[in-house]
Write a structure and sequence with these properties.
The chain has 298 residues and is α/β, with parallel strands linked by helices. The protein is built from ten helices and eight strands.
Amino acid sequence: MDPELEAFIPLLPRTDLADPVGYRKIYADLAASRPAPDTSGLEMEDRTVPADPDVPVRIYRPHQPQGAVIWLHGGGWVVGSLDTEHLWAAPMANLSGAVVITVDFRLSPEHRFPAALDDVYAVLTWTHDHAAELGIDPDRIAVAGHSAGAGLAAQVALRARDRQGPPIRFQLLNEAELDDRQETWSQRNFTDTPWINRDVVAASWRHYLGSQPATPYAAPARADDLSGLPPAYIATAEFDPNRDDDIAYALRLLQAGVSVELHQWPGTFHGSLAIQSADVSQRQLAELGAVLRRALAE
């Protein structure tokens, strides 16, 4: 474990998805206690995307953006909001030079799959159709996220491909939740890792799916055909149950002819990027922004 990160582990609250409403408050309070990001160079706007039901979004617009990033929050599809994701969205807009759109998708277990995917797909379609209003090139739209949000980014990339929907230029999957089967070495063995462990991942899938069987649109690792998907950047944390699922997905994308950049961050754990004082976290955050900037450049 990275020593800078290890020092914070005793301070982390226990992740307990057994009480979704209670944990949402803990998660929101934790986010609110952290220093606010610099938004001085950004225009910010809350909007509502027309859909069934309508989807709240928050738009971060830097000076002269080239493209847009639909940024999807983590939290196991159970917790997270526009406010909790503000800590990531503002830096991403500054570092990437892109319009960043965060999505307040519906949460489980109140709204199970495919509710969140439907919300994100509606925002993708709206972003493409309103590109001129947003001041972006409609062919420069990326989907990105962390954890369950990265899983949603992979889901929406599959749906857009199969429906011949809006073109997605790039997908950024950070510590993505991709496979409900939990059969890889890291899923079976990381039972006591910080912040997220095997049981927490299992609970998030139970909330997300309920009693319905998983389809490839819910668990992208189940998809037989990964060809024709957008180029990808996939990042993994060393002590993360999702690690081996993500590496396997990157390899399968490569074998399907999709260009992939894969980065395994040593000494990190799932969500340790939130400890932004650590050198490795600062490097991770800078890289995420630089990757998006390159992907959306001419």
